[in-house]
Every structure is written in C-alpha cells, then in structure tokens.
Amino acid sequence: MAKKQSKICLVLHKKSCTRPEVKAAVKHARQSGIDIDVFIPWNGRSLRGFVRRSIKSGTERIVAGGGDGTLNAVVNVMMRQDETRKVSLGILPLGTANDFARGAGIDSTDLSGALVLACTGKPTAIDVGRMNGEHFINAASAGFGAEVTATTPQDMKKSLGGVAYSIMGFVKAFQLKPYEGRVVFPDGSVEAGSMLVMAVGNSRFAGGGYDVAPQASLTDGLLDVAVVSGAKPATVNRIAAELKDPTNATNEHLLYRQLSNFKIESKKPLHVNLDGEPVQGVSFDFHCCPKALSVVLGKTPISS
Fold this sequence. Notes:
Layout: E1 8-12, H1 20-31, E2 36-39, H2 44-56, E3 61-66, H3 68-78, E4 88-93, H4 99-103, H5 111-120, E5 124-131, E6 134-136, E7 139-143, H6 144-151, H7 154-160, H8 163-173, E8 179-184, E9 190-201, E10 205-206, E11 210-211, E12 223-229, H9 236-244, E13 254-259, E14 261-274, E15 277-295
Helix pairs in contact: 1-5, 2-3, 6-8
C-alpha cells in the first residue's frame, strides 16, 4: 500500500539536500513528532509539478527550503492555484542572502528551529507583489542593483555571502551609467528622469541585506517604490541618510512612494531582479495583491 502523503511537504533545493545541518534539521523535526514529506526537485518544472500536485492532493502546508529564488518559484505556483487559499507557506532559509526570511524575522542560522517554526507556526495573511504577471513575495530591484546581482559570480556569492554584492557594487560603480525612464502613478501622473537604482519592496531587504524599502509592510496592501536618481552626483552616505528618512520632502536623490499599483518604463532594456530571478524589459507593470497568501513569519518580523 502506498504511503499516504503528509499534510506538510518540504520542497528542498537540490544543492542543499546534502548539507549536514539540513539533514539534522529534518531529523530533528521528525523526532519532534512532525510528519513531513521531503521532495527534491531536479529542475523548475519538477518543482512546479510537485507543488501543484501537493496542493490538489490536500497538503496543508508547503515549506520552501532554499534561497529567495526557490521561495519565488513556490509562491508563483501557489498564487496560480484556486486551492491555495487552503494551503499555507513555511520557509526554511538556505540561500546566500535570505532577504525575505530576514525581514520576516526567521533565523537562518538556526535551521532546526526554522524548520519546526515553518511546519508548526501560525500563518499570517500577507501581501504578494505582481510584475507583468509574475509574482514576488520579497522585492524587485532594477538598474544598478540588479546588474550587481546578475553579474556577481556564483562562487563569489557562495564564499563571501552578502559581502559579494558589496564588492561587485564597488566595481560596477566606476562603470555605471544612469538609466533614463519614468514612473507612471495610478492617477496617470508621471515622474521622469535618470535612475541609478530602483527597488520595489513588498518586504524591506534585497541584495544581501540592504534595507531598500525601510517603510515596507507585508500587510498594508501597498508596494514601496524607492528610486535613486542619477541626475545629481551623490555619495553613498548621502543616499543612505535619505533612506533612513525616505519621505522627507527635502530629499534630493531619493524618490520614495507607497502605491497599490504603478508602472516603470525605461528607454533601454532594464535589468530587474525579481526575488533573485533575473528579468529584462522596458516596461514593468506592478500591482499589490493584498493578503493573498498565508505565510508563517518569525516571532519578531521586522517592521518600520
């Protein structure tokens, strides 16, 4: 007789399945009395198929074990299933940056604790972002930030972690040319100009721990848009200072808005990093899907 599928399924990134601390976390969860099935997909198609089948067969919780890219893949499948309203999402942070887990208050250094929380914690209904039909749970970064992420070598990411983004950032800064584009607001008004960096945050962190959307909330029904202009020379310290007070009317380099929907348009192809997944284009239509997904957050999720 075939084994009945558990109500909790862990989708585990194949590069993480042999890590001793991951094996120990799964063993600890099972010894704690948690009935959990583990699936290791070989590719994106395998992952998507498994998540769809699990939802249709009555799984009550999907745990995404991997980095922000794995989390994004699972979220996109869940957002396309009618039965998802009955299913919640847990997170086992195993990536380089783990930006969403950081903002959600999930400790990526305690994998056993994180897995038990992911399996047993009470879920919260949170917002999900959508860009050109693709969903994201954490953030979309564009321009300079996305180029840095896309061009950071994988071996450097692995060996240096979030520091790799900073190193590549310094390298890129000397070659950087601003993008020309505009933001189209819901009322039809337009803010045009040059852009070095743009971030659209459902949560706060991106690019390996950078607080790109300091006022973002997972439950306010809004996406936070932060655009660093390339019109005037600015120091890193000046931009950082403006991010600490993003809505200050005297800010010269930072445009910061909280919106339910808007559009970004660029004169040339723009690199966008969507929860760790690279995308390119010249027009990006953003929408917030309010409280669209039930997710287990940490005990002390970060908020503004």
